[in-house]
Amino acid sequence: MDISELLNGLNDRQREAVSAPLGNYLVLAGAGSGKTRVLTYRIAWLIAVENISESSIMAVTFTNKAAAEMRHRIESTLAQYSQPNLFGMWVGTFHSIAHRLLRSHYLDAKLPQDFQILDSEDQLRLVKRLMKLHHYDEHNFPPKQACWYINHKKEEGLRPNQIEHYNDPQEKQWVRIYQIYQDVCDRSGLVDFSELLLRAYKLLESKPVILQRYQQRFQHILIDEFQDTNKIQYAWIKLLAGDSAKLMIVGDDDQSIYGWRGAKVENIHHFLQDFQKVKKIILEQNYRSTENILQSANQLIANNEKRLGKNLWTAGEKGEPVEIYAAFNELDEALFVASQINLWLDEGGKLDDCAILYRSNRLSRVIEDALIRSNIPYRIYGGLRFFERQEIKDALAYLRLIANRQDDAAFERIVNTPLRGLGERTLDVLRTLTRERQITLWQATQLAINENMLASRAATALFRFIELINSLEQDTSEMPLFAQTDFVIKHSGLYQMYQQEKGEKGEVRIENLEELVTAAKEFVKPTDAEDMSDLTAFLTHASLEAGEEQASVHESSVQMMTLHSAKGLEFDRVFIIGMEDGIFPSFQSLEIPQQLEEERRLAYVGITRAKKKLTLCYAENRRLYAKEEKHFPSRFIAELPEANIQAVRLRGTVRRAYNRSAVSTNRLFIENELSDWKVGQKVKHAKFGTGTIINIEGSENNTRLQIAFQGQGIKWLIASLAKLEKL
Ligand code: ATP
Ligand code: MG
Question: Which positions bind ATP (predicted)?
Fold first, then answer.
């Protein structure tokens, strides 16, 4: 096949970007104009045509999923010409790339070899614990705010000693908390998400030899979703690029939606100034949405003042108008969405191509109810993820302590789980020791035992705990990962503890623990983790996974997610619910013009996810926080062009006024007495094989079963449709 065919399937502008001579490029373009496509093709072009070695290429994406997809696409594009070997190419998120650097240079980064990643929940626990230890009042100094402060400062690239607090007493305290927290993390070998970036930056900055090595290696750096990079990420890229690397960045200022998390859209301007001879390429043709959808998006975003300015057009069809549905209340809204999805299915649509988007997670529950009642399978991105569940985190904490004794967060979590009769008083002695002697909890325990600082019962219990961890390590050191996981779960006492927990909950926890063994068995060490132990690689995977949305595993299901996590994705049929002032735009943003603009960009992102049909819903009454309130349609609806939108009239029906009590007596999630399904029952499914029921929701025809299939993962299925065979 002729290599120039690589350019087929691109328009002139895209082609210009993909085949441009080596240099610095900024591809600035609106939603759905092919930015991600251009980046992917560009990499293929560099390898196939410019003969660039794949190991000199680094590509940065916004999620791990997008990274996997990009690698796959490049591979299949190149496979038409040659046998690609992309082993040496680095594709990943900023976090995963920073992590990789730190693993390779842990000594220079002043980290222990087995340093562990703290996800945001771990971080909050640790901060909470430390603030208590240092007598901070939670009311005046909320731990959540402390986490926000710490992360924000790290994203700015600042260490406690670099923060000017101008003698502001409140800020002085935040800085002190940051310092206390950081000291413990450093002693324990713990790295939170923002620390990954800052550490990697400091590593490169302070070790010229290492920096030079990577500068020489990565001559081609490509970055997607550039508008959402923060200060430290930008500084990091600048440092790594040095004088000679060639960059292609793609982004859309109108889709900058992480300002609240420190993202700086100005980085686009900085890029133009800081890098040599940047050529700007603008794409304006949209390939994703119908004209009606696109015009709505264009007109909406035109209300923002600070824009780089670009207008999208499409050669595609006009399509159906954007629908606006005024629901009586949130139940009506939910039933409407469910009925529309059924219509969509009747018309030959596929569930996978359908998405429901919302401003915040709490809006999903009522919709879930309605979907279950209508037998529509769904999947929530970013719901409670497997690796975030209590029992799983307990088991992982044992594994973490085995891998690294200095891991204070893991130590805290399990020192008295299962109960070992250790009281807060004993633990406080240890915590105080950590503070006074600047040591970790593990070291403090040994010290306290050796120096007889504890009551004898407590000392014995702690001594046994230490022995337990040591022997778990010894006994499992030769085992493969899954056997090690299984052994640790069974011999730590966790298994027995959860076995004693009554009812379904305990059973589900046991099943989940078993699923963890399956997960360990299925775990394949990624190519970039060669030099890590299997255990560390697995623990890393678990932490990074907990920071990201889950992938859709259901065979076919509606996708539900927040507007933020929909970035970069596309669906034929999209619903955006809760289009009400105070919800979207959010209440906090109503009075602050800058924030309102960010909300509008979020609406722009939402609208431009739709390919064929878009429906916006709002409820005139909504119950939130157990209180019913009258709501008004989102101001964003009023900003849409009348010519492209249409109010929905329900055919032949009078507007339904829902009687709440009538609906709620019939509510779901009630105990499932009528059905003959039982948790723990083994079943067989035509496609997924054998599995065990681990959870039941709904009743009669609406019963949904959560089943752990051997080797296929955990899935939700509608009992009446799944054709399950009982075993
Ligand atoms: P977003 O801003 O939402 O991330 P994007 O600019 O990255 O969007 P892509 O996701 O790359 O856009 O492309 C949008 C859709 O248009 C995809 O389905 C893509 O395959 C398709 N597409 C892009 N360019 C072309 C083209 N030249 N011909 C046909 N389809 C195209
Ligand atoms: Mg994209």
Answer: 29-36
